[in-house]
Amino acid sequence: MKTKRDDVEVHYQHTKEIREKLNQDTFAKWLGIELTEMGPGSAEAEMMITENMLNAHGTAHGAVLFAIADFVFAVACNSYGKTSVGLQVNIGYLAACKQGEKITAKATEIKRNNRTSWYEVTVENEKELVAHLSALSYRKNDYFVSGEES
């Protein structure tokens, strides 16, 4: 009979393997997003706003803010080594960012059960909150880290 793996235990036993897997996000690399922290159900990343990330008004494109928020959401919900995918996200843009500003995104787990998990994500520049994202993930059965369910 199989027993359920403890998510937090899996996170701590496989932190390096999980981080290596999630750092393979080629889109995040292309944007220059750097994962700075990862914990069980949490993540933080930062990036610089560059000229090619600006919209017609000369401020950071909403898609750029969404991308870093979505990245930390993905890291946070996959931080247990269990494959999780986004089901729904809602983002609010609260302030503009300019070229040369560093932005930081932080994801925090609000609620997790066997099949779904809910996260709140903030994106800030050095002065203020610039975006807020609420996100729901679907947790699949499989783990992407080594080890068998016992």
TrEMBL record:
Q: Which residues form the Thioesterase domain?
A: 57-130
**Where exactly are the transmembrane stretches of this chain?**
none
UniProt EC number = 3.1.2.-
One of the record's GO molecular function terms: hydrolase activity
Report keywords, A-Z: Hydrolase
InterPro entries attached here? Acyl-CoA_thioesterase_PaaI (IPR052723), HotDog_dom_sf (IPR029069), PaaD (IPR011973), PAAI_dom (IPR003736), Thioestr_dom (IPR006683)
UniProt superkingdom = Bacteria
Annotated protein name in UniProt: Acyl-CoA thioesterase
Q: Which organism is it from?
A: Fictibacillus barbaricus
Please name the taxonomic classification of the source: Bacteria, Bacillati, Bacillota, Bacilli, Bacillales
